[in-house]
Amino acid sequence: MIPYIAYLGISAFLFIIGLAIMMSRKNIVAILLGIEFILNAAALNFVTYSKYSAHNLDGHIFALFIIVIAAAEAAVGLAIVIRYFQLKETVHIDEASELRN
Questions:
Q1: What are the boundaries of each domain within the chain?
Q2: How many C-alpha atoms does 88 have within 13 Å on its Cβ side?
Q3: What's the CA angle centered on 66, arms 83 and 33, to 5 degrees?
């Protein structure tokens, strides 16, 4: 049986990778990818807690909600990116401050 520290380590690694991607990239699609990494890290934490500590399905249910939220975020985020690309012909976040005009 794999110890829970291994799962928490993988989750921390995913969280750090997602945070680094979000902070260092100027591409909107890459920022959405970083958010997906962070949401997957949170889901892994919930499942690990549910399996090793609580011995119930609460963490699995929360993880399922996180997966649904991540799918909705990806769909809405990519729709916004596609529309933004049609308007500005770039996906860099620096030009996004001009969306109000």
A1: 26-98
A2: 19
A3: 45
pLDDT of residue 18: 96
Determine the Cα–Cα distance for residues 3 and 94; give it in Å rounded to an integer.
43
Entry pTM: 0.85
CA dist 60 and 96 (Å) reads 37
pLDDT 10s digits, 41-74: 999 999 999 988 878 899 999 999 999 999 999 9
Which CATH class name applies to 26-98?
A: mainly alpha
Task: Return d(Cα 71, Cα 77) in angstroms, integer.
Answer: 10
How does DSSP classify residue 97? G
Say which residues have a Cβ less than 8 Å from residue 6's Cβ, sequence separation at least 6: none
Q: Is 73 helix (H, G, I), strand (E, B) or coil?
A: helix
Rounded Cα distance between 70 and 9, Å, is 21
Contacts of residue 68, defined as CB under 8 A and 6 or more positions apart, other chains included, come to none
* Residues pairing with 27 in the sheet: 92
